[in-house]
Amino acid sequence: MSRANEPMDHEYDGIQEFDNPTPAWWHLIFLGSVVFAFVYFVHYDLNPTSWTIHDHHRVAQVRELQRMFAEIGTLKPDERTILTVARDPKWGAVAEGIFASNCRSCHGENGEGLVGPNLTDDAYKNVKVVTDIFKVINGGAANGAMPAWGVRLHPNEQILVASYVALLRGKRLTGLAPDGEVIAPWPEVGADAPSEAPADAPAEG
Ligand code: HEC
pTM for this structure? Predict the structure, then answer.
């Protein structure tokens, strides 16, 4: 039992203490946080339909993609687009981001190869011409050892990352040894905008 404002029986080195009750506001905060934690736990961890930060993140990502792709239009998976679009610093950064989140785990930090082949040399297993890069990304290879991204990534994302992969060629990073056949160099294309832009559009920059 507390005896408010009366010193307790013990004393050490001349120091005595009161046995005052914890104030009501303290109890309220404590109980409030317990109740809040319970409601939070039930809502976010036990309720399968509640929104999580991952859902918010996904929606934000989709909105951002829509915003970006409204700007870039519908890309075509043709030679010129694949060889040019990631040269643009902005789209190059987007393409690198797509590679980083989906491809690094198998193709290595910079495409030097890990589970999947080195993408920085001149030898390829499934690629003869530059547009084959898009085909492999879109449809996968080796019975799914290379997953098909056609169902997971927006077509523009597949083309952007194909472009990133095309531009990795020739970096010859130390990693997995070349696998497959050495193929002819990519054709030369100008550094102008991707092919969906009208032919007379002024060059960017
Ligand atoms: C689960 C592991 C895995 C992931 C993730 C992965 N790849 Fe692959 N990838 C492979 C394997 C394995 C191969 C080799 C297939 C074969 O042997 O024919 C390959 C082959 C390729 C090739 C053809 C290379 C060649 O020599 O023919 C390209 C291009 C490629 N991947 C691009 C990508 C891109 C871009 C991404 C991300 C969007 C990606 N990969 C994600 C495993 C992966």
Answer: 0.74
